[in-house]
Amino acid sequence: MSIRVERDKESGVAVVTLDRPAKHNAITLAMARELGSVWRGFRYEDEVRAIVVTGSGGRAFCTGIDREAAQDVPQPSSPYTIDDPLLAIGPKANDLWKPVIAAVEGMACGGAFYLIGEAEFVVAGEDATFFDPHTTYGMVSAFETIHMAQRMPYGEIARMALMGSAERISARRAYETGLVSELTPAGGALDAAVRAATVIAGHPTEAVQGTVRALWSVTEASRTPALAHAPHLVSLGNLPADRQAELFGRRGPAFRTR
Q1: How far apart are CA 240 and CA 73, in angstroms?
Q2: For the stretch 37-54, what's the b/e string if a residue is b when 16 or more beta carbons lie within 10 angstroms of its beta carbon?
């Protein structure tokens, strides 16, 4: 498995690390299952009162699902449903209402937004970049954009999704638009996120979890019906797998960071 969990009993903070740096912390099917198990397990660990999720290696927080793993997922024939192995990789999808902070260094793209979208806030190193390559490769960005639309102005999320791999949002721009709540020197995101989590973990946990649940209820009203449309949008809009593979094999356009 490539998920590492460290718990500090004194502070009440746990750190969940995607630990596959050679693959930019891309998520395999086994990792997806383990993430769900980790989040569900935290519901029973009263000593864990706040959590930080991050990626190892410094080059990437996460680059979404491992493409080879995605090819192993059979899909139903109906255009109104898909089997998405990333649907339950986030804390809220697993009924966890303890606060989660995302600490981002390097690239965060595509399926990484399932995790970022279910974190309470994001701390990023100044070298972090955010982008969504789906459209470049003939894939609909539905689940990802729905998650991120709760965190970014419409024009920003639309631009990121539609520009695909041609453009990356810098950590500074992400901070300016509200996606990132704290910007740190490169390599400092994890320490800053742990410091914030330690403060939160020191507050009465019932009040903290109730606040998380209240905040999440604001987004549920719009998120739930939007997510209901996502499966058939993906099924109808995605190019066939062989055509996607052809596009993946091409040298893409040079990207710029803004």
Answers
A1: 14
A2: ebbeebeeeeebbbbbbb
Backbone angles phi, psi at 108, to 5 degrees: -135, 115
- Domain total in the chain: 1
Query: Which residues does residue 101 pair with via DSSP β-bridges, in sequence order?
Result: 52, 121
Q: What is the pTM of this model?
A: 0.91
The pLDDT of residue 60 is 97
CA distance linking residue 143 with residue 176, whole number of Å: 24
pLDDT digits (tens, 9 = 90+) for 188-207: 999 999 999 999 999 999 99
Q: Which domain holds residue 19?
A: 3-187
pLDDT digits (tens, 9 = 90+) for 50-108: 999 999 999 999 999 987 766 666 777 777 777 788 889 999 999 999 999 999 999 99
C-beta separation of 31 from 20 below 8 A: yes
**CATH code at position 160:** 3.90.226.10
In a domain, 92, yes or no: yes
Give a yes or no: residue 246 inside a domain.
no
Q: Would you state the pLDDT for residue 252?
A: 63
How many Å apart are CA 196 and CA 206, to the nearest integer? 18
Domain-embedded: residue 252: no
